[in-house]
Amino acid sequence: MTSSDTASETVSETASETAERTGGADPRDEFPQFVLPLVVRIEKAEPPARTDALETAARAVLAMLSDERSQGEGDEEGEWAQAVRDWQDARIRKVVRRARGAEWRRAAQLPGITVTGAAAEVRVFPPVPLDGWPKELVKLQVSGTDLTDPEPPAAPDPARPVLWLNPDLDMSAGKAMAQAGHGAHLAWWGLDEAARAAWREAGFALSVRTADPARWADLTTSGLPVVRDAGFTEIAPGSCTVVADHPTLRGCPTIG
């Protein structure tokens, strides 16, 4: 992975404490490393709004985690299940690339799931080895995902999950999409099967918003899942990037 890759790693409070206790070593590094590829469609004439792209990326991660092809073991194992297990056993890496025109059409032919938002389209693919990207994806660009919102997004619905972004960090849209995906991932880990099923039936409804600076410190100490970035790109290691505020998880311990 190069410094230009829009990638980040989910490191929860518990994992950080474990690394500190072991002198900085992380047991997940002993496993083969995988990455979850996400491709956002960005046409020159009609790029998606930033918030729409972030929310769609987060829902794409949930679509991959919940898909029947990612589930099961043994004779009941889905075709993506082993790759998803290998990916989650190691560091949780997600990389966002962009495509348009023929690039997008080629990417859409690969096994995966396309998730749509208001206008955004994100295709998520089963995890691949860190150095084993499909040829149709490996040449796609990481830069150029500096999307904007034409107007400030509305206040989120308090009854639906909200992924709160750190107001003090300046992240590219691609970086923020990966972080939103991490937040959704941690929320998914924290839910029981009934809550997961309800969220899935609701189409993984969620909002991504930048937190009020006055609330950020309280959010990070609220007991909700917190994403801490590994610091490979754009921001300092250990930075808190997202708090996953799912109604079912309010008041729960931080996910490990």
Structure keywords:
256 residues, alpha+beta, six-stranded mixed beta sheet, 8 helices, 10 strands
Could you explain how this protein is built, in words?
- It is a single chain.
- The chain is α+β, with helices and mostly antiparallel strands and 256 residues long.
- Helices cover 32% and strands 18% of the residues.
- It has eight helices and ten strands.
- It has helices at 13-21, 50-66, 81-89, 101-108, 135-138, 173-190, 193-201, 213-220; strands at 7-10, 34-41, 92-99, 113-116, 121-124, 128-129, 162-165, 207-210, 226-228, 240-245.
- Strands 1, 2, 3, 4, 5 and 6 form a six-stranded mixed sheet that branches. A four-stranded mixed sheet has the order 8-7-10-9, sandwiched between helices.
- A hairpin with a 4-residue loop joins strand 4 (113-116) and strand 5 (121-124).
- Helix 2 runs parallel beside helix 6.
- It starts with 6 loop residues before the first strand and ends in an 11-residue tail after the last strand.
- Residues 1-22 have low confidence and may be disordered.
Radius of gyration from the alpha-carbon trace, in angstroms: 17 Å
Biggest sheet statistics: 6 strands, mixed
Straight-line distance between termini: 25 Å
Structural class: alpha+beta
Q: What's the helix-strand series? A: EHEHHEHEEEHEHHEHEE
Strand content: 15-25%
| Mean pLDDT over the full residue set | 87
Structure, briefly:
It contains eight helices and ten strands. It has 256 residues and is α+β, with helices and mostly antiparallel strands.
